[in-house]
Design goal:
The complex is a heterodimer of chains A (261) and B (266). Chain A is mainly alpha-helical and 261 residues long. Helices cover 85% and strands 0% of the residues of chain A. The longest helix of chain A is centred in the last third of the chain and has 39 residues. The two termini of chain A are 35 Å apart. With 266 residues, chain B is an alpha/beta fold. Chain B folds into 2 domains: 185 residues, Rossmann fold, CATH 3.40.50; 61 residues. Chain B is 32% helix and 23% strand. In chain B, the strands form 2 sheets. In chain B, strands 5-6-7-3-8-9-10 form a 7-stranded mixed sheet, sandwiched between helices. In chain B, helix 2 crosses helix 3, helix 4 runs parallel beside helix 5 and helix 6 packs across helix 7. The radius of gyration of chain B is 19 Å and the shape is globular. The two termini of chain B are 30 Å apart. The chains are: A mainly alpha (261), B alpha/beta (266). At the A-B interface, helix 9 and helix 10 of A face strand 5 and helix 2 of B.
Chain lengths: 261, 266
């Protein structure tokens, strides 16, 4: 580490551009946490070392992977469904004033009804089932995607659509080569917000009416007042989120924006 | 058979303002027609109507294809801005306008065509990496590779510096002589019109109609700097001093060296 730090610290600007600018604050945070936990010796603040060893234990027994897998599956289904429906609604409303008028009230309603209300109603109407859980999360997310994509659809450059029209592009080609690329910033915006929101809602859904998943596990740890367990699952969760951001979203975004100079 | 017959009785803007009234002309296959008129004369509106981008008008517009089997005549359109898709490479921008079955055997010749328009090896670049003049070369090539029956051009070389615009006009004439589409070239510059066209239609200001249909009898190739172009420009404006403001009021008796086919009364 000494050797890695030396060149990086040669100039402040160089340091801020390097990866240590990301890593160092995290290390510092963990150190402060460890010191606080040792000095306070409180049951409600376990040291990071304990959290990591619990995480490791849960990982080896397979519990963590099972519950994380269940949660990820629900996140995946709801995310895909919400994006598809939300994008379709957003494009529809951005392009047609009539559809916009017809659906706008529901959009505002959907945006503002508390997630908890939708979750409880879904469980009551459709039973404590997997379908009800995924449906509740999807319904919560759709309005946000639709709002963002409606903005995008309104901002689409008519001049480029004229090019597609003059050169007789098929509807399919017009959509994928002329229309959709203009929506990409809006798609990424709502995908990021979407994941952030869906993670949170999925956990509540699991806490309320499922017998597996990270939300269910955190609920059980809460009953036993097992803070270490809660933090271990939270940490696992955070790692997954960083993984998705670093391995999927950011490379995809860089690839799709490669034409911007 | 004409490749293009335009007969617009009336075209109003959505606000009710009348843009075009009783404007009629026909273009022969392979004819290079320039349309000159004051700004706001509805020149862009006219091209949009011909291209089918705007269909709200009274009257008729008919396009005919040379190839009898072809269902709809192909149109090339070069807009005021290059209007390339910034997220597609130059090559993809060109392939996009080709019919899917034509893409495979056009792929190799696209390289040659890019070299022909002075952009050798630029196929993999994105439009944002090209200069304004280079982007227009791509837009020009895009208009030609669909092998159009009618090529519409809406002040395509405006906002370019004079030498670049001249290079592009020369390139346009080279490409036009290879495939000979009918061209409608809208411009507000009489010099530019004289340097490229066989025939110039002068428009009045709004509501626009044709005030003068003028045949340009000059040798090709020509450039905007040619003495003959300069002379014709001077003599035309001597004869009709208010021509570019959209009014035709003869000033002198001396006719210009070109032939006025018909001059409507102002």
């Amino acid at each position: 580490m000494q050797q890695a730090l030396k060149p990086a610290l040669e100039s402040g600007a160089q340091f801020m551009q390097g990866r240590w600018a990301r890593i160092l604050p995290v290390l510092l945070f963990v150190c402060v946490w460890q010191v606080l936990a040792i000095t306070l010796e409180s049951k409600t603040l376990p040291p990071p070392s304990a959290v990591i060893s619990t995480l490791w234990h849960e990982l080896r027994t397979g519990d963590l992977l099972f519950h994380l897998g269940m949660t990820l599956r629900r996140v995946g289904f709801s995310f895909v469904a919400a994006m598809l429906i939300g994008v379709a609604l957003g494009i529809l409303m951005g392009n047609s004033k009539n559809w916009d008028r017809l659906l706008d009230t529901f959009l505002i309603l959907g945006l503002n009804i508390p997630a908890l209300v939708i979750i409880i109603l879904c469980y009551i109407w459709f039973g404590l089932s997997e379908t009800a859980a995924v449906l509740a999360v999807t319904v919560n997310k759709i309005p946000m995607v639709a709002i963002s994509l409606r903005e995008g659809a309104r901002a689409v450059d008519k001049n480029l659509l004229q090019v597609a029209h003059v050169y007789r592009l098929s509807r399919r080609e017009t959509f994928f080569k002329v229309y959709l690329p203009q929506l990409i910033p809006y798609l990424f915006g709502s995908a990021r917000n979407g994941l952030a929101l869906i993670w949170k809602i999925v956990l509540v859904v699991e806490l309320l009416g499922r017998s597996n998943g990270v939300g269910f596990q955190i609920g059980s740890y809460f009953h036993f007042f097992d803070i270490t367990g809660i933090l271990a699952y939270t940490l696992a969760f955070a790692l997954v989120i960083f993984g998705v951001e670093a391995l999927v979203l950011r490379p995809l975004e860089t690839y799709l924006n490669r034409w911007r100079t | 058979m004409n490749s293009l017959t335009v007969d617009i009785r009336r075209k109003a803007y959505p606000n009710g303002c009348c843009a075009i009234e009783n404007l009629a002309f026909a273009a022969q296959p392979g004819e290079f027609v320039a349309i000159v008129g004051p700004s706001g004369a509805g020149k862009t509106t006219l091209l949009n109507l011909i291209a089918g981008l705007d269909r709200k008008m009274e009257g008729s517009i008919a396009l005919h294809s040379e190839a009898a089997l072809q269902l709809a005549p192909a149109i090339g359109f070069m807009f005021q801005e290059p209007r390339l898709m910034p997220w597609l490479t130059v090559q993809q921008n060109l392939e996009m306008v080709l019919a899917p079955h034509a893409r495979a055997h056009q792929a190799a010749s696209l390289q040659d065509l890019l070299a022909l328009v002075g952009l050798p090896g630029c196929g993999a670049l994105f439009p944002g990496q090209l200069s304004g003049g280079m982007q227009r070369r791509v837009a020009l090539l895009r208009a030609f590779i669909v092998e159009p029956d009618v090529l519409l051009m809406d002040e395509p070389f405006q906002s370019l510096d004079a030498p670049t615009a001249e290079q592009l006009r020369v390139l346009l004439q080279e490409l036009w002589q290879r495939t000979r589409p009918s061209v409608l070239f809208v411009t507000h510059s009489l010099r530019e019109a004289l340097s490229v066209a066989d025939r110039i239609l002068f428009l009045s200001s709004r509501p626009s109609r044709i005030i003068l249909d003028f045949a340009v009898d000059l040798q090709r190739p020509r450039t905007i700097e040619d003495l003959s172009v300069q002379q014709l420009h001077t003599s035309l404006l001597d004869r009709y001093p208010q021509l570019l403001e959209g009014r035709i009021t003869p000033a002198q008796e001396k006719p210009p060296s070109g032939t006025a086919l018909h001059a409507a009364k102002a």
